[in-house]
Amino acid sequence: EDVIKAIEKMAVPQVEKIEGEQKEIVPSRVEKIMAEKMQLSKREIPHFYLTVEVDFSEAVKLREDLIDEFGDEIRISYTDFLIKACAKALHKLPKINSHYIQGKIISFSRVNIGLAVAREEGLVVPVIKDAHRKGLFEIAKERVELVKKAMEDKLSLDDIEGGTFTLSNLGMMQIKNFAAIINPPQVCLLATGEIKDRPVAIEGEVFVVPVMEMTLSCDHRVVDGYLGSKFLQEVKKNLEKPALLLV
């Protein structure tokens, strides 16, 4: 009986009596909003996850060439490659570029990609609008401006509204892979890890190549395994043949 009471007590979150100093941390307004949104997402969205490995050999070379040639003007990052690769894939597969609201799927012609930006004040997701129509350098310039505004807490309402898909890149934190929570009412989110050299067998020979793992979180009410896989294959193709991103 005492054990049952203890279990019932543990089921209700409460402050435990733990020796030592305790400090209550009051969440910021942004953190509260994000917490409520993520709780809603996990409670209502039937998530499933698909992971793929991408050979970044050609993307690494192209980025180095672009930095050598244009580095003084704008420094292209791998995040810019990812945004553009996703934008092309979303434009080709519009059902991924959708919202799910009250039992209805609303697909958009505009591809507006949100980029998760972590700050001490809480996570924010500024949006690069019409990413499918923008070149790599235009995306890079806009990303730099939006991240700067995010870190300085100067984002406008227009900067964070209208997202149709979200990218969360933790590669710079040496994270190998992770599965993220979908940003409702969007139906997918792409989580990307670090680029790391790995041995890969190609036509019977072993080569060391830079590889990134990426995981697509999908809302199973809208996206099935086949469609999610098609999207990842499109993104993979765009990154493994990065000249496509310059078109």
Automatic annotation (TrEMBL):
A GO cellular component entry from the record: cytoplasm
MF term (GO), any: lipoic acid binding
Cofactor: (R)-lipoate
InterPro entries, sorted: 2-oxoacid_DH_actylTfrase, 2-oxoacid_DH_E2_comp, CAT-like_dom_sf
Keyword Signal: no
Domain of life assignment: Bacteria
Location of the 2-oxoacid dehydrogenase acyltransferase catalytic domain: 21-246
UniProtKB keywords: Acyltransferase, Lipoyl, Transferase
Family per record: Belongs to the 2-oxoacid dehydrogenase family.
UniProt-recorded name of the protein: 2-oxo acid dehydrogenase subunit E2
